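Supplementary Methods, section 5.1.

A reviewer requested that the exact input to the structure prediction be made available. We therefore reproduce it here, unchanged from the version used in the analyses.
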Amino acid sequence: MPTMADVARSAGVSVATVSHVLNGTRPVLPHTRQAVLDAVDELGYTPNTLARSLVTSRTRSIGLAVSAISNPYFTEILQGVEAGALEHGYSLLIADPHDNPDHERKVAQLLHERRVDGMIVAPSADPRELVSYLGRHQVPTVFLDRLVTVPGGGPQPFDQVCAENTGPMARLVTHLAGLGHRRIGLVAGLPGLSTTAERISGYRQGLTDAGLPYDDHLVVHGDSESAGAERATTALLSRPAPPTALVTANNAMTIGTLRALREHGLSVPDDLALCCFDDFAWADLFSPRLTAIAQPSRELGAQAVRVLLERLDAPDRPARTVRLDCTFVHRTSCGCPDAGEQSSRAAQPSRPSHPS
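The structure derived from this sequence is encoded token-by-token as follows.
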């Protein structure tokens, strides 16, 4: 089996230079770097990651804790994390905390015991034990998709990466209001999640922008999953004055809402207009096609890796929160004519032209 010394001899450089090229520990001239990579290729050299980790105290591995099995939205995020980790020469250890506060702390401990260099975690609605464990053991961590706030408004000790939620949700509401809807319902997510709170805030902002009153009876919680959304939508439709339009706050809940509408014999958009937060691959295959807010799922995952690696390189820098823009994808479930898919940045909500 070829060694690092063999690579050095073949490339005509020192062993230290080979190490710098493979580990990225020091800048190397482009032609020298290429000579080393060519020698690695020619000899079929494979770095001994175990030996390297003993010397550097780094395993070049990242722990990822997201509910990718139970929540399809995280599947695309996982793909982004995996691509980002691979690009930088890191392996990935994946665990599913199932959005359970007790289980997520155990998952974090399990990943930590595997000596990962850092973690990327989508926290549950009650992450207190998780935050306590990560802080106590000083584990470099990036919170992904869902933000964690510090009690009392103290400085945030962890980096965070998420999408914009408030403005894009307001955009959906003002769009529906601009089509003449005055009773716009919201199927919100699991209480306690930052995404739920921010999307409710965006819903209220959209109503205000459209000159419509907020009605607590038009907001129900589907708990971020399909079955919960089906129950919540059924309850909403049973109200004395049901909505004429609905916004669902994630893709899983959109499925549950559509199921409930079908059970009630209601047609979209003829009987009730529908918009959803979260686009997904088959949203364009529904009839009607679903108007949605598309989150940059893969980019969120890749960005989380970049932020984590920056943290590993500079452990003492202040923590930061990175937000990525979403896209408004205009289709036909809102009741608009099928004039083809139109997309625009959804960072800021637009005022309706003729709310009624």
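The two ends are 76 Å apart (CA to CA). These observations are discussed further in the main text.
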